[in-house]
């Protein structure tokens, strides 16, 4: 019961201090909000990019381009041969005419480049759907064997660019963690400075409380709660700003690559909660660090 009464006192005093020195408190809240916003943005982008890579990995395929003069009978024979290989889910034959029509549909502005030719300008190909659960060494050996065949001009393997995307995801996460760590350090320093200034303004009141026998916990409690509230407010502001930017990009980029890859889904509720709690923890740590005995 006494603890609840003390907690109510801490919250009331912290709220009064926040309102009384709202300008410096706003600076602390915005500092931690910026750091958490950037951290949430990196988390959002890397999470969506990693999910897209995982989805594309499930749809992984290899495209085997054949020589331009490959007859359709040979194309069907090669497709049947490729379909019998382990780890192959499907094989689709693409004739030169079908390749030209597909090019014109996907790139209507460049359709004239492949129109009016006496011979088909694009080669026939085999689009081979690969099973991601199949062994990578065996699949690599099989594709290398196709690359050496005389009727094949090129083998385009999705694993190469998927591996590059995974590297990009790792780099984004590493850079995000480093940047957020530095900004959180600056935010903690700012909150510590604000709390130390508030404690200095109340040094006479603190001296009187010590004279009447108040415990250190009772004296420092309001300042701890003030730092905690500043951090939580910063986390809430960062989450709200991140949600607003996500909605803006999602609405403006509807149907684009940015919307489909980078802002496909928002952060999970537990990730948003983590950002807010991280802000509260940073604010509390800043308050504790600032209230050493010499500061009071």
Tell me what you see in this structure.
The chain is of the alpha+beta class. It has 2 domains: 2-56 and 163-295, no CATH class; 61-131, Alpha-Beta Plaits. The protein is built from 10 helices and 4 strands; from the N terminus they run ααβαβαβαβααααα. It has helices spanning 2-20, 22-58, 72-83, 96-106, 136-147, 158-201, 203-211, 216-252, 257-261, 269-290, and strands at 61-66, 88-94, 125-130, 152-157. The protein has a 4-stranded antiparallel sheet. Helix 1 packs across helix 8, helix 6 (158-201) runs parallel beside helix 10 (269-290) and helix 8 runs antiparallel to helix 10. The radius of gyration is 31 Å and the shape is elongated.
Brief write-up:
This protein is an alpha+beta fold. It has 10 helices and 4 strands, in the order H-H-E-H-E-H-E-H-E-H-H-H-H-H. It has helices spanning 2-20, 22-58, 72-83, 96-106, 136-147, 158-201, 203-211, 216-252, 257-261, 269-290, and strands spanning 61-66, 88-94, 125-130, 152-157.
Question: Strands of the biggest beta sheet: in what spatial order?
Answer: 2-3-1-4
Structural class: alpha+beta
Q: What is the terminal separation in angstroms?
A: 28 Å
Q: Return the string of H and E elements.
A: HHEHEHEHEHHHHH
Counting DSSP E segments of at least 2 residues, the number of strands comes to 4
Mean pLDDT, to the nearest integer, reads 79
Strand content: 5-15%
User: Could you estimate the helical fraction of the residues in percent?
Assistant: over 70%
Largest sheet: 4 strands, antiparallel
